Description:
mainly alpha; 13 helices; globular
Amino acid sequence: xxxxxxxxxxxxxxxxxxxxxxxxxxxxxxxxxxxxxxxxxxxxxxxxxxxxxxxxxxxxxxxxxxxxxxxxxxxxxxxxxxxxxxxxxxxxxxxxxxxxxxxxxxxxxxxxxxxxxxxxxxxxxxxxxxxxxxxxxxxxxxxxxxxxxxxxxxxxxxxxxxxxxxxxxxxxxxxxxxxxxxxxxxxxxxxxxxxxxxxxxxxxxxxxxxxxxxxxxxxxxxxxxxxxxxxxxxxxxxxxxxxxxxxxxxxxxxx
Length: 255
C-alpha cells in the first residue's frame, strides 16, 4: 500500500489494472467500444447495488433526508446509463457483425449484477438455472418496497403487521390496505410522499433503461436472435412496463 505522500492518481484508481481489462477478440475498430460500454455498465450496476443497500438502511431507520439523497443519486445513475446507449448506437449493424461471431455464447442476459438489481427491487420469478448464492441471499432479504413500508412505520403510519412480517422470498402481489395507506401518504403531501416519488423516479429510470436497451438491440440486430441464443429484442420487449413498485403507480388511478 502506498502512503498518502506517494499515492498517485494512477495508483489510487489502479489504472494499470483497469486499463488492462479490455481484450477485444478481433481487429475490428468498433469492438473496443463494445467492451468498454459493457464494462462501464457493470461498474454502474455495482454502484447501484451499493447505493440501494444504503437506501434501504436509511429507509428502515427513518432517515428521510438520507433516503431522498440516495434515491435521487440512483435515479441520476440510471439516467447516465441510459445516456450511454447513445454512444453504443453509433455502431452500425455492419460494424457489430464484424466481431459478433467471436462473442460465442456470451450475452448481456448473463449479467449477474443486473439480476441482483432486479431482485433487490422485488423480482422473485428467476429461473432456477440462474440462481446463485448471492441471488438467493438477496431474495431472502426485504426488497426496497418492503423497506419503504418499514420507513412509513417509523413515521407513525399504520402498516399491517402481516405485511411487515411477510416472507421476503415470496412475490409481492399487492394489498388493499397498503394501497389505501399509500393514498393517505400522498394526500398528506409530506416528506414520506417525496420519498415515494423518489422511488418512482428510480422505477421509471429502470423502465427507461429497458426501453432504450430494446431499441438499441433492434437498431443493431433487428429481429435476429441475440448472442448466447437469446430471443434478443423479442425477449426484451416482454420485460417492458414491468414496474418495480406497481403499488406506487396504481394509486395514481385512485379517484
